[in-house]
Amino acid sequence: MPARPEAWLSSPAVGATTSADWTRHALDRLSEAGHRSSAPRAAVVEALAELGCGVTAREIDEHLRGRGSRVGVASIYRSLELLTRNRLVTRVDVGEGTVRYEPLHPGGGHHHHLVCDTCGKVSAFEDDALERAIRQLSGRTEFEVSAHDVTLRGECPSCQRH
pTM, whole model, 2 decimals? Predict the structure, then answer.
């Protein structure tokens, strides 16, 4: 299995947000939207907060099983769909044919991804110059850009040493 991705919580744009803060935020937002609380959904939210950036439903399932939780795979997918519809989680495509998910920071923290073609590690990165270049490009087109994702592929430092 590929190495765990870097946690989004360590991202500078996210600042002082903790996994507990995001968990509370997500559960409060769902409640405000009229969704009843459930133990399986709360477990998925907590797992997402702990695992962070670019995780698969399978990784969430393995994490929960490792903690002794008996949340079914169908409940994980239903929870991820609900969290995505409520803009608490985003689907991340890093070009490997597997859907990955990550918590959306309430303050709008934004990052991109580095993917190791050898081991599959997914790491987050931020770059102000890249963001400026994307805004400038957007200003030169007639297309109104509402979002963007950048995924850079290559080989991580661990795989380069082998």
Answer: 0.71
